[in-house]
Amino acid sequence: MKDYLLDLLLDLDGIEQDPYYHPEGDALFHSLQVFQLAHQQSDCPTMWAAALFHDVGKANGSKSHDAVGAEMLQGVLNDQIVWLVEHHLDLLIASAQTKRKLRKQPTQLKQLEQLRHWDVSGRDPTAEVISPQQAIALLDPFFTQTVA
Fold first, then answer.
1. What pLDDT is attached to residue 148?
2. How many domains does one find in the chain?
3. How many helices and strands, by DSSP H and E, does the chain display?
4. Largest CA distance in the chain
5. Between the CA of residue 45 and those of 25, 41, 73, what are the distances in Å?
6. Which domain holds residue 89?
7. pTM of the prediction?
């Protein structure tokens, strides 16, 4: 499982993103930044994992990288992480509708808002990031808790 997850991350290396929205460069560099923000600002391994893997679907080249990424993680990580990956763009695409839909699920909404914040903040072209292997190692103690 860890090898599979590492491969998903490594597949993001060199995947260029629109420089207007992502001046930081490729999808791997962005994902590692988002992970580090989550790791620094939260003590929740579920959120760390969602931050690290939120863009894995971009390696596929599909426009719907959120749904593709969730599908790639289904059965590997728990349903909460998969849900966060699948819905990480909802607040961008339909903010008011998403907030209405999740008003009776305040924890999910808060997690989605936090992930969105980190996603937007992880766009510094000069950031120092850890390696994908180091990120996986930080999650390692929690993999038994995060598997489906």
1. 47
2. 1
3. 10, 0
4. 40
5. 26, 11, 16
6. 2-146
7. 0.93
